[in-house]
Amino acid sequence: MRSVRARAALGATLVVAVALIAAGTAVLLSLRANLIDRTDLQAEVAARDVASQIALGVPYGELELPDEDDERPVQVVGDDGRVLAVSEHLQAVSGTASADVRPQAQPREADDGDDDAVRGEVSSDDPELTSGTATVDGDSADHRFASVEVRLDDDRTATVYAGAPLTTEQDAVTTVRDAMLVGLPLLLAVVGLVTWLVTRRALGPVEGIRREMAAITRSEDLSRRVPEPGSGDEVARLARTTNETLAALEASVERQRRFVADASHELRSPIASLRTQLEVGAAHPELLDVPGAVEDTVRLQQLAADLLLLARLDAGERPGSATLDPAQLLTEEVARRAGDRVPVELAVTQGLRVAGSRAQLGRVIGNLLDNAQRHSVASVTASVRRKGGRIVLAVADDGTGVPEEQRERIFERFVRLDDARTRDEGGAGLGLAIARDVAHRHRGTLTVGRSPSGGAVFELTLPDAARG
For the residues 416-427, what does the mean pLDDT come to? Predict the structure, then answer.
């Protein structure tokens, strides 16, 4: 059964069926117990009434026993097991001390010779209740019998058995049971149908989402979106999340396409230049521009390294967790740049710690220094300090700076500002994109602002590893 609606309807029906059966059984048992208690009370009342007459000295033959219409048979049994009195029209009985329905004369033992005048006392104990049958005027039925003992003055005892029919109890239980047996299937059918319809209505938007997702898969058009119901429930949130996922997927695919196109474009120029130089050199060795060929090769090597690092970052490469000294990283990177066109001034605080990958953070520092030296006029300043609970590594230059409206755009891949970055002056526009990506993966940030000298200042902010 693959349909959610069918499973929901079947599950709801089964749950309701179990609940109704349990409730119905409890109702029937409670009803039967109450009716039996009422029947027992009727039998006890009849037995005590007859026992009271015997205790008052009424002769057995003159006892006022329930008549035919009362439907409560009575039997009085002596301590020797003989029947002393019995209801008229009682033809058979079971569940009492004797199955005999014919009264027998009680032996005369009293000194005054008047046996019927003997009085007694009714036992105050709770009557014993038993189940049996009785046949009155040819009609046999189940009964409940109550037995009450009378202690006579002549040391004899007489036990009164009075019964009450269970016909009413049985008829009531049967009627309720039959009504349940008829109503239960109808109620279950209604529950199943209502559950089916409600589930169908609730899952309607889900089916709409499925159809739209299937259409998107067939068309490969990630600009399409699934319908969002206005119910505000889980289905609406599912549709909203699905659309957010589609938007993120569309943006990712678009970035990938743009990345491939830009990478192809960036690779085409140095490859074409290198091929031209090699072809000229093959035809005219004296014209081969070896330094230019080396420069193009280095540029290709750097671009390939940048693309490889971006690919690893996009694949989710996790940074290392080594504890590093940012001041040492910066000092080592600056030391490798001795003799560059623009010297780098250092202002570092020792003893600071950050966690991450030495290679990746070193690459970020190198990219920031390359960018600053490329656009500075006369000076570049690099510093490391603690600010609050974080470590800030800043690189500032005295160049033209970055216009405020362009400060986020420069972190996009293959982006170069027209007035400050050309292919002759810089790389492919991947350095800052790589730097920000690495910063985010180290739980940090990379921002750009205006330096005191009027140029640009890039601040790399990382968590302080010394504070956990």
Answer: 49
Please check whether residues 117 and 150 belong to one and the same domain: yes
Q: How many distinct structural domains can be found in the chain?
A: 3
**171 — phi, psi (to 5°)?**
-65, -40
Residues 402 and 350 in one domain: yes
* Residues with Cβ within 8 Å of residue 397, at least 6 apart in sequence: 342, 372, 373, 375, 376, 377, 379, 380, 381, 451, 453, 455, 456, 457
DSSP for residue 94:
E
Do 348 and 302 fall within a single domain? no
Sequence-distant (6+) residues with CB within 8 A of 62 are 116
Please give the helix or strand (H or E) that residue 346 lies within, else none.
Answer: strand 344-348
Q: Are residues 405 and 425 part of one domain?
A: yes
At 227-284, the pLDDT tens digits run 888 877 888 888 889 899 988 888 888 877 877 777 777 777 778 888 888 888 888 8
| 448: CATH | 3.30.565.10
The amino acid sitting at 382 is A
Joined tokens for residue 235: 């289905």
pTM above 0.90, yes or no: no
Q: Has residue 463 got a pLDDT over 70?
A: yes
CB atoms within 10 A of CB 418: 6
CATH of the domain at 258: 1.10.287.130
Contact predicate 353/378, CB 8 Å: no
